[in-house]
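In response to reviewer comment 3 from the previous cycle, which asked for concrete evidence that the modeling workflow produces usable outputs, we include below a single protein chain processed end to end. The sequence was submitted unchanged, and the resulting structure tokens are shown without manual editing.
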Amino acid sequence: MYNILICDDDKDIVNALKIYLNSPEYSFFEAYDGQEALQIIGREDIHLVLMDIMMPKMDGITAMVKLRESSNVPVILLTAKGEDSDKILGLTVGADDYITKPFNPAEVTARVRSQLRRYMQLGGGNPMRTSFAIGGIELDDEAKRVTVDGDELALTPKEYDILKLLMQSPGKVFSPSEIYRKVWQEDPFGAESTVAVHIRHLREKLEIDPSEPRYLKVVWGKGYKIEGR
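The workflow returned the following structure tokens.
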């Protein structure tokens, strides 16, 4: 899974980009100014950044300069039509590409894929993992096999996809809507109850005591996460 950071002070733009790029391949982080973006990049394994230029606290150009002191993660600038000089400056200080607002969804998807492919080919990131382990849970995505403490589990396709999504980002909280959108690839109508049913079935298969889960945790009012201990 690729971790994409979207940084724009307009939350509607952030949400729109997440919809355009919706894919099981991508996990998203959000920031609303350059300073917040740098903090996230400092603590998370980010593979690509979509960065607005005009933002409060710290603008995208300043954030770019600071980022390039320590990281070569690809950055695509989000620019307005009248920001030609800022586009040139951004490319000069290390941005890899830019997209002009209003966005064309197909162009956004193509440019993101192009930059990720180039980054990985140049050895800038880790290759896509096909196996995951958390505590006693092991998931082999090539064999589509899940074991707990060595015992193989029989999971439905949706249960498997939910577990894989959570195991790709241990400790990260996914809302029911986010899980539904990534796993079902549909708008999340009825997501709360549908996801809750699948999570309950997963717990019954994964946990020794589903009422006191060791791995699959609920964060009340926010969603679900997986962690090992």
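The mean pLDDT is 87. We consider this sufficient to address the reviewer's concern, and the full set will be provided in the supplementary archive.
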